[in-house]
Amino acid sequence: MSDPDTPVRRTVVAVDVHQYSSARSLQQVDIQETLIDALDTAATLSGLDRSGWYKQAQGDAEVAVLPADAPEPVVVADLVQELTNRLARVNHVQDPALRLRLRVAVHSGMVHFGRNGLPGPAAVQTCRLLDSSVLKRALASSDADLALIVSDALFRDIVEPGYRGLRAVDFTPVEVRLKEFTGTGHVRLLGGPGVRAPVAPADGREPEAARPGSQQEIHAAAVATGEQGVAIGRNQHNHYGSGSGR
């Protein structure tokens, strides 16, 4: 247990399996194995060592605190992309209902290592983003393999500057209201049967997001969540007009 007066700043990654509870018991066993294998492989291919992560296993989910030397851009860009690649490899199944689909949340902030969990705002905020209705609906209403949400701070520090090929235009800003938490997240959908590479317009403008209709899907999901999460506009990367939201 860490000194309560000396928290540490770490990156927190939370992952949850879509519709895990609807699977049969033996399917859940296989899903857990596939999830951990996908996380281990994605981390290795991203140059990250999972053996040094503090992990809380939750069956169909995991909350992990990464070491201080884990680069945030690598986590947001490389780890998420490699995880999407792993999902593409395991999702060649006849029954679409058997696809492994994930929600992923990433945040960076102050963490305590308690005797029975992770006290402190960073872990709480990451889990609130992961469990937000807007993220759940965004994945459920799309054919994506993975729905990513990053905190507003990480978006501004890592995504907007364009580190490791990240593009702000690929993310949709949403407002999350869950329990006592209210804040902004940024959602991106990756992978799945409908994914394609973005095509640059002939006039040289920035290409739209890689997934056709993804911004509209996320916006519709945000509006449908009511009090739990609504889309909000931003001056530079708002795809649905300055008056969007409610």
How would you describe this protein?
The protein is α+β, with helices and mostly antiparallel strands and 246 residues long. Helices cover 32% and strands 22% of the residues. The protein has an 8-stranded mixed sheet, sandwiched between helices. α1 crosses α2 and α4 packs across α6. The protein is globular, with a radius of gyration of 17 Å. The termini are far apart. The C terminus is likely disordered.
Which SSEs are present, and which pair or pack?
Layout (H helix, E strand, L loop, with lengths): L7 E10 L7 H21 L8 E4 L3 E5 L6 H19 L11 E10 L9 H11 L1 H8 L5 E6 H8 L12 E7 L2 E10 L23 H11 L4 E3 L15
Parallel strand pairs: 4-5
Antiparallel strand pairs: 1-3, 1-4, 2-3, 5-7, 6-7, 6-8
Helix pairs in contact: 1-2, 4-6
Briefly, what is this?
This protein has 246 residues and is α+β, with helices and mostly antiparallel strands. It has helices at residues 25-45, 72-90, 121-131, 133-140, 152-159, 214-224; strands spanning 8-17, 54-57, 61-65, 102-111, 146-151, 172-178, 181-190, 229-231.
- Please give the largest β-sheet: 8 strands, mixed
Estimated helix fraction? 25-40%
> Mean pLDDT, nearest integer?
81
Helical region count?
A: 6
Shape: globular
Strand content: 15-25%
Q: How many beta strands in the DSSP annotation? A: 8
Distance between the termini: 43 Å
Structural class: alpha+beta
Strand order of the largest sheet: 2-3-1-4-5-7-6-8
| Quaternary status | single chain
Low-pLDDT runs of 5+ residues are 196-213, 226-246
